[in-house]
Design brief:
Length: 335
């Protein structure tokens, strides 16, 4: 199958700063693909190069089988939604959505019909005549989405589109984005620094660090098998086990990452003994930190807050076990 987006040897430097380092990437048609990484890891630069707003220092961009590296943005079959929406403040909602069609020379009646349809798709029907300042943040973001999809791009590029919204609204918009992507059936490339968001929405996730993709896989692969310390701690939370500690817990003698929900505590039985140092109540669960006897190591366990559950306390003695399949061996760090 022909890739929707194919990057080969893509490199971008700004003076001494390497923003993107020799990147190869294939994104498939219809895929919800996320680029996840901390601030400054090169995500926006990659997106801007795909859109054509930025020229790579070297390397190529192909979209749906065509090399577009030297083509201007408006000829590329993609559209971008930015975090700050970039709406025209003096234009009504419908005029904002129609804008690109007007530039493209689409006739008045057809323009209106397509803009209405796009507004319907983002649940904004009825707000056609409002100005951007008369809308909530979430509604403004929907206008930006409508404005992007009305041009019927083959891929939509979204740069932290939910970053300005509060948590509740963000969670609601996440569901709607996913539904929109399914109904349009086009490729979404979604940039975020929020690991929850990337795991929730994506078919595949590329984890970025310093201009490189350090891991690429499904959310489950990235979460269950983080390749190195950076990924293990950036995506979700985990306890990093030194080789001796891993061995004491019956695992291979190598650096390991283990997710707190895969650590089992018991009052007795097999395992490594330890003392509870902290119990943190988060509502849905208890986060329990255990100091392991004689190992100079602590490990975090998660226990669901189910009513009948034994209530653990600081100072309690427990036995700690980890299923071998639940621990991810980490690659040795580059020196
Ligand atoms: P992210 O979106 O992951 O936060 P960016 O792609 O914006 O990362 O930035 C990657 C690196 O490139 C950063 O070090 C940033 O400072 C630098 N950078 C990005 N754009 C420019 C620019 N126009 N001029 C100079 N440096 C830039
Ligand atoms: Mg960015």
């Amino acid at each position: 199958m022909e890739s929707a987006i194919r990057l080969r040897g893509l490199h971008k430097s700004f003076g001494d700063t390497i923003a993107v380092a020799d990147l190869d990437l294939d994104i498939e048609p219809g895929e919800f693909f996320s680029m996840l990484g901390p601030s400054g890891s090169g995500k926006t630069t990659v997106l801007r190069i795909i859109a054509g707003f930025e020229q790579p220092t070297r390397g190529t961009v192909s979209l749906f089988g065509t090399d577009v590296t030297s083509l201007p943005p408006f000829t590329r079959p993609v559209n971008t939604v930015f975090q700050d929406y970039a709406l025209f403040p003096h234009l009504s909602v419908i005029a904002n959505v129609e804008y690109g069609l007007r530039v493209a020379g689409v006739g008045r009646k057809e323009r209106r019909a397509q803009a209405e349809e796009a507004l319907g798709a983002v649940r904004l029907a009825g707000l056609e005549d409002r100005r951007p300042h008369e809308l909530s943040g979430g509604q403004r973001q929907r206008v930006a989405l409508a404005r992007a999809i009305v041009l019927r791009p083959q891929a939509l590029l979204l740069d932290e589109p939910l970053g300005a919204l509060d948590l509740k609204l963000r969670e609601q918009m996440q569901v709607e984005l996913k539904e929109l992507q399914r109904s349009l059936g086009i490729t979404f490339v979604f940039v975020t620094h929020d690991q929850d968001e990337a795991l929730t929405l994506s078919d595949r996730v590329a984890v970025f660090d310093a201009g490189e993709v350090v891991q690429l896989g499904t959310p489950r692969e990235v979460y269950d098998h983080p390749r190195n310390r950076f990924i293990a701690s950036f995506v979700g939370s985990s306890t990093l086990l030194e080789p001796d500690v891993a061995a004491a817990l019956g695992l291979a003698r190598t650096p390991m990452a283990v997710r707190p929900e895969r650590v089992t505590l018991a009052e007795s039985g097999p395992g490594v003994p330890g003392t509870i140092a902290e119990v943190i109540y988060t509502g849905p669960e208890h986060r329990i930190v255990v100091d392991l006897d004689g190992l100079d190591a602590r490990i975090t366990a998660l226990e669901p807050n189910i009513g009948a559950h034994h209530r653990r306390e600081r100072g309690d003695r427990v036995m700690v076990t980890i299923e071998p399949a639940a621990a991810a061996p980490l690659e040795p760090e580059a020196a």
